[in-house]
């Protein structure tokens, strides 16, 4: 098992995600323990102080699957969104395993993340085509 890379999260994203988790029933929230762990270990910065190469909420990213197996090398083009906006093509919820894994990663970083089937996926951030904070969209 690899060491998790350092992650950076904006205070706005942290507040919104924590509020989302707090509204869940204990049983629902238990399913997102890994996301809570990520939030607890994150470096938190003001939105205007976010590095432009970090995945934040509503960022459009390209991630590459570096796991062994059939998905090795697969590139995923995703927009990280809150659950209400998930479901559209390429939109992944921060509550989904891949969404939780990407939040706070910088371009070039990878993370090993447990999937619902018990396997682990290694995802590397290859590119960030759009990050709201870098674009000056602090109130999205």
Textual characterization of the structure:
Helix content is 23%, strand content 27%. It has 140 residues and is α/β, with parallel strands linked by helices. It has a single domain, classed as Chitinase A, domain 3 (Roll). The strands form two sheets. The protein has a five-stranded mixed beta sheet. A hairpin with a 5-residue loop joins strand 6 and strand 7. It starts with 7 loop residues before the first strand and ends in a 10-residue tail after the last strand.
Question: What can be said about this structure in brief?
Answer:
Helices cover 23% and strands 27% of the residues.
Radius of gyration: 14 Å
End-to-end gap? 36 Å
User: What is the molecular shape?
Assistant: globular
How is the largest sheet built, in terms of strand order? 5-4-3-7-6
- String of helices and strands: EHHHEEEEHEE
Q: Compute the number of structural domains.
A: 1
Q: Please provide the count of β strands.
A: 7
Task: Identify the CATH homologous superfamily.
Answer: Transcription elongation factor, GreA/GreB, C-terminal domain
Give a topology summary:
Elements: E1 8-10, H1 11-22, H2 26-30, H3 33-41, E2 43-45, E3 60-65, E4 75-81, E5 91-93, H4 97-102, E6 110-114, E7 120-130
Parallel strand pairs: 1-2, 4-5
Antiparallel strand pairs: 3-4, 3-7, 6-7
